[in-house]
Amino acid sequence: MTRPITAGVDGTDESLAALDWAAREAVRRGLPLRVVHAWEEIGELPADRDTQRAWAEEGIGRAVGSLTERHPGLHATLELTEDDAVDALLAAGADAEELVLGTRGHGAVVGFLLGSVGLRVVAETTRPVILVRAGDRPEAESAGREIVVGQHGTPEDSAAALRFAFETAAARGATLRAVRAWTLPPVFAHSPGSLKLLDEAGGLEPYEKRALADALAPWRERFPGVPVTEHIEMGSAGQVLVSQATRAQLLVVGRRARRTAVGARIGSVAHGVLHHAGSPVAVVPQDRPGADPA
């Protein structure tokens, strides 16, 4: 089954930037573009719904039409629904190659605990989500701008994010920068087994270098045409990733959501990156199917 690139659009500048980004990605990968606009019912009178639908058909339809004019080979469809926005986007994203949304910019994601649509979708979807800021421009995807991906833990812990990053770099002919951040663990947290591994590796830094190299090895073999730069650095993972992605065309992070009394929440690294990264950010569920390189 051919999965489309799906964009959620509400008419704001940031969502229209996300629509442009999604169209370029669909053309690059030879995939169809699915555009979804959802709104909740705004009144009891049919005229209210008719007005909303007419606005979407005209305004968003015009934006989609402009994209197909600029990209003659692009197959794009527009879907309008009165369903709850989160439910509609989760349903549309379930069978998408990736789901593309707009984000208002630095600090906008503090609305998560208040029910931000974007972060609820990021926390609950099983597919990669790309968040694009209003100021995004095609020039940001020019040659020389890297795809940056964060790697942590074991090779399996980051397999989904690495796969997505390598696939994207291959499709764009881009260099990949793989980043692993590390911190000094509490002295009493060392088990005899971990102390033995560190001793065999020659210390913490060589151990982290080896861990990154081991995680990348199967993906380097699968994507031999993708140039890879490896970077390890001591510090907060979110801060290290943002500092390494100042000129990135895309920053890729993994995500494991956890359930709380107020709903699903994403991890601190993904949350921090969404606060501060200037480039588009891809958030990839770590347990999504197909992460194994075999």
From TrEMBL:
Residue ranges constituting the UspA domain according to the UniProt record: 1-133, 147-285
What Pfam family is a match for this entry?
Answer: Usp
Cross-referenced InterPro entries: Rossmann-like_a/b/a_fold, Universal_stress_UspA, UspA
Q: Which family does it belong to?
A: Belongs to the universal stress protein A family.
Q: What is this protein called?
A: Universal stress protein
Q: Tell me which species this is from.
A: Streptomyces seoulensis
Organism lineage reads as: Bacteria, Bacillati, Actinomycetota, Actinomycetes, Kitasatosporales
